[in-house]
Amino acid sequence: MSRGLWVAFMLSTMLLATAPLWRSSREPAPVSMAFPGWPSTFEGRPLRELPLTELEARFGEGFPGRIARFSDGQRELILRWVAAPTRQLHSTHACFLGLGYAISPAPFWRQEDGPPWNQFIVSRGASRMVVREAVMDGRGGHWTDVSAWYWSALLGRSEGPWWAITLAENAPLEAP
Questions:
Q1: pLDDT of residue 143
Q2: Is the separation of the CB atoms in 170 and 115 below 8 Å?
Q3: Which of 103, 92, 101, 86 is nearest to 144 (CA)?
Q4: 67 and 89 in contact (C-beta within 8 Å)?
């Protein structure tokens, strides 16, 4: 095989291998699944739906799924139902950084006999919260990292829909 033909073959192979990544990140993926509705409880506590903030509502425009915010009386939850792999699903860690919070690492959180959740502490002024997040599918798939979920979903290793759950609760301020 001539050098020019070999280069053309390699370029074609590379282009075909990256074809799944060509979709424009600005173009929302079609939502083709029926939304099952929001849960009425979380970890045994009843949920009360809260209005989305203006920023959350704006973020939800074009999102391939649905977003809602809830309270269980002590904690706030943001639930995102995701129908298609998307880069629009950002980690909560990145959102808090973008909002000007200081982030401190914390050990993974695990409910007895359950999968791990990413956990960290955010603080800004007198506000200090413990935040945990995870993404899961209906077949036992569970991710503590949004990027890991994205690549699993994009490469067909997990099928949607998925639930991205963020839970935040106030934490006492540490003594100086």
A1: 95
A2: no
A3: 92
A4: no
Alpha-carbon 36 to chain mean position: 18
CB 87 within 8 A of CB 102: no
pLDDT digits (tens, 9 = 90+) for 12-48: 434 334 444 444 443 444 445 789 999 999 999 999 9
Query: What pairs with residue 39 in β-bridges?
Result: none
The two beta strands, 127-137 and 162-170, are antiparallel
Antiparallel, parallel or unpaired: β 127-137 and 142-143: antiparallel
Handedness of CA 20, 25, 26, 28 (dihedral sign): positive
pLDDT at residue number 84: 94
> Which amino acid, 79?
L
Token output for 7: 């280069």
| pLDDT of amino acid 99 | 87
Find, among 90, 93, 115, 91, the residue nearest to 104 by Cα: 93
List the one residue out of 91, 104, 98, 92 whose CA is nearest residue 171: 104
Mention every residue, 6+ apart, whose C-beta is less than 8 A from residue 18: none
Q: Which of 136, 126, 120 is nearest to 174 (CA)?
A: 126
